[in-house]
Amino acid sequence: MTAEWIRWPANVLARYGGRPVAFGGDYNPEQWDESVWPEDARLMREAGVNLVTVGVFSWSTLQPAPDRWNFGWLDRVLDLLHTHDIAVDLATATASPPPWLTTRFPEVMAVDRDGRTMAQGGRQAWSPSSEVYREQSLVLVEKLAERYGEHPALALWHVSNELGGHNSRCYDEASAVAFRSWLKERYKDSLDELNAAWTTSAWSQTYSAWEQIQPPRVTFTDSNPTQVLDFDRFSSDQLRAQLRAETAVLRRITPTVPITTNLVLFDAGKNMNYSSWTDDMDLIASDHYLRPAPDAHVELAFSADRARGLARGNSWLLMETAVGATSWRPVNPAKRPGQLRRDVLSHLARGSDGICFFQWRAAQAGAERFHSAMLPHAGPDSRMFREVSSLGRELASCSDALGSRVVADCAVLFSEEAWWAADRDSHPHNGLSYMESALDWYRSLRAAGITADVVPPSADLSEYRLIIVPMLYLVSDQDAARIAAAAQAGATVLVTYFSGIVDPLDRVRLGGYPGAFRELLGVRVEEFAPLLEADHVEVEGVTGPARVSTWHEEIDLTDAEAMARYVGGDFAGAPAVTRAARGEGEAWYVGVELDEEARTRLVGVLAQRSGVTAVPRDGGLDVVTRRSADHDYVFLINHGDTETTVPGSGTDLLDGSVHRGEVTVPGGGARIVKRAR
Question: What is the 3-state secondary structure (H, E, C) of 347-407?
Answer without folding.
Answer: HHHCCEEEEEECCCECCCCCCCCCCCCCECCCCCCCHHHHHHHHHHHHHHCCHHHCCCEEC
